[in-house]
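In the current project phase, work has continued on tokenised descriptions of protein folds. One protein thus recorded appears below exactly as we store it.

——
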Amino acid sequence: METAIQTGAISYPFVPQSEHIGIVKIGFWRRLPAFLIDNILLQFLTNIITSPLKKSLDIDDTTFVSIEDIIQNFETLLTILLFSITIYFIISCFYFTYFYGSTGQSVGKKIMKIKVISVTGDMITYRIAFIRYIGYIISEIPFFLGFLWIAFDKDKQGWHDKIAGTYVVKE
């Protein structure tokens, strides 16, 4: 009799715990540096891409120094913020989907020697990597609660892991 694991809208074949011997699930504190490394890299890439817009809008380090400057240049501030956020989400979507779908590791996870696998122990597909990225957004919305969940979950899964049916394990 084959049993299935239901994770969100996706069902996976049940893999007995005995078949996961040797797999070490990684918790919050080991995953946090990888997350920070990836986000610093993504922010750097976003800044490179948004620099021409900032230059064309004549934005420099002194443009938004005081409250008066912010109020006076509010439309410019809003434009650059919305553009930067949009670029960040587009880059991060491709970044995480590509790296997790191809190797199971982003740059941060590679440095920390951890990787993403499916709950069945297999490499994840690009489709699952994309679903996991959407789960990242859901995990971020309520004050990053979906990421903090990792610290308290018995399987060391964040909401994005539960949505996509993934674990983060030792390389």
